[in-house]
Design goal:
Elements (H helix, E strand, L loop, with lengths): L2 H15 L1 H7 L5 H7 L4 H29 L2 H19 L4 H29 L5 H30 L2 H20 L15 H12 L2 H13 L2 H16 L4 H25 L5 H25 L4 H12 L2 H13 L6 H25 L6 H42 L1
Length: 411
Amino acid sequence: MTRRQHFVIILILGALSTISPFSIDMYLPGFPAIAKDLHTSISQVQLSLTAYLVGISVGQLLYGPLLDRFGRKLPLYAGLMVYFIASIGCAFSSSIEMLIAMRLLQALGGCVGLVAAQALVRDLFPVGEIAQVFSLLTLVVAVSPMIAPTVGGYATVAFGWHSIFVILAIITLLMLVGVYFVLPNGKAPDASLSLRPKAVMGSFYTVLKQPQFLTYALVGGIATSAPFAYLAGSSDVFMNIYHVSAQEYGWIFAFLAIALIGPTQLNRFLLRRFSNEQIIFATLIYQTVVGLLLVLGTWAGWYGQYGLIGMLFLFLGGQGITNPNASALSLAPFSRHAGSAAALMGSFRMGFGSLVSASVSLLHNNTAIPMVGIMTACIILGLVILLIGERVIRHQAKSADLDGPMAEALL
């Protein structure tokens, strides 16, 4: 693979991975306009975000076996077409109930991009390069929050919130062209893999019983769901509490997205000196400290608008490091079941994300406390799971080392 091919492949995989970030971030500045136009409340509009996250969580479980059975491209085509149709449906929604339903369908189609991109990384690159490739993908994905809310804010003001979903539909068509003409096929279809429920559940069980996968998929799922609390609550916090405009909110969102970009590239250098496990542990400790200061300062009234932005910047910086390392450690043990592993990993992430965003909506109290409190709780819980899971992994490895010599002696 030449450097040019390497760059183009990562760019397309990154674009597929940005479907969900764009779908989430672009319409955030339109929340007040959507609420006003559909005669509902901000908290009800937030449920359309929850519906999207639920759809991603469920949809990824469906696409995992399909990607292993039929190869990577056929399910990609089908899912992207569903996303395109649902985006048009969102644009023409006349009630909050219809918007929520269309967002659910949109997620069920669009989540194929995330699962397929992760599986293709496992297909196309050596295991030793996976973490670095994920860092590059995270860089591409991290650019989307800088662009999406800004574009969404200006599109909402100029053309109305409906135009956001028309833009998403057009972007999807461009992705379809790139997938068809440029993206390699990856792993070939495997006719021996059955799609019967029992066989599918067996594949998932094979993945879940691997302690390394379960530990880092849960850590990644819970710890990296912290930004979903920020996504669910930030528009209300900045636009209703601090009274910024839709365009200003887009720029704030873009600035905070920079916190994701720098650390993703720092991770590539850290990997030359430290293991994935060491990097994740140090990052979660850092985020725990920052998160506790964020909650305490918000409760005590230490931070104004700019102080809150600064603390959020420090907190979100850890996400760009945890995510690629957790993903690499989760997928490393698998080749044949990489699609199912990627689906479960993504499902954990979005499932926790949907719970987090729903919690922010339910705990809404016209302050920033629900948002920052849930963000911090995600990190602390992820750290606890990491400590317990690594003990289990070490115990299993020690048992395997002991069983080997004993088995040889018995023979």
